[in-house]
Amino acid sequence: MRYFEDFQPGEKLPLATYEVTREAIIAFAAEFDPQPFHLDEAAASRSMLGGLAASGWHTTAIFMRMMCDGWLHDTDAAGAGGVDETRWLRPVRPGDVLSGVSEVLEVKASRSRPGFGTVRFRHEVWNGAGEPVLRMLNPIAFRCRQTSAT
């Protein structure tokens, strides 16, 4: 189990890999982002995306799964107050196998909530060609080791 004290600036935590399927792209889009270029290959080929692509929101949800499976489930995370920045850099296509890393930018003990600290991350997800498809900046709160023991 990792606690707030265990994170160091510059540390890179690998995300789990994830294979994106055509069926998952269409299913997510049908429920949450029903734009034609996420649902229909012909419409997508006429769009600026140039072909069927996952919704940016789908890519972000996939990232969350990759982070949980990669390292977050092995921590005493206490949640996050939001995301400071999200950038969808390239389309995510059917068949892409995504990988990535979470880099620790800053660690800061909480003044208002003793026993907690915030770790600021830069997350980056790449497609199979090693091209970045998603970049996010966000702080995540973690319990301190002493707080978890009590």
Which secondary structure elements does this structure contain, and how are they paired or packed?
Layout: E1 12-14, E2 18-19, H1 22-32, H2 36-39, H3 41-46, H4 56-70, E3 77-79, E4 85-88, E5 97-109, E6 116-126, E7 132-143, H5 145-149
What does this structure look like?
This protein is of the alpha+beta class and 150 residues long. The protein starts with 11 loop residues before the first strand and ends with a helix. It has a single domain (4-19, 56-149), classed as Hotdog Thioesterase (Thiol Ester Dehydrase, Chain A), CATH 3.10.129. Strand 6 (116-126) and strand 7 form a beta hairpin. The protein is built from five helices and seven strands. Strands 1, 2, 3, 4, 5, 6 and 7 form a seven-stranded antiparallel sheet that branches. It is 27% helix and 32% strand. The radius of gyration is 17 Å and the shape is elongated. The longest helix is centred in the middle third of the chain and has 15 residues, at 56-70.
Q: Mind telling me the C-alpha Rg?
A: 17 Å
Averaged pLDDT, please? Answer: 96
Shape: elongated
Helix fraction bin:
25-40%
CATH fold-level topology: Thiol Ester Dehydrase, Chain A
List low-pLDDT spans. Answer: none
CATH class value: Alpha Beta
What do we call the CATH homologous superfamily? Hotdog Thioesterase
Q: What portion of residues belong to β-strands? A: 25-35%
Q: How many strands?
A: 7
Q: Give the N-terminus to C-terminus distance in angstroms.
A: 15 Å
How many domains comprise the coordinates?
A: 1
**Architecture, according to CATH?**
Roll
The major pleated sheet works out as: 7 strands, antiparallel
The H-and-E topology, N to C, reads as EEHHHHEEEEEH
Helix/sheet category: alpha+beta
Oligomer: single chain
Number of helices: 5
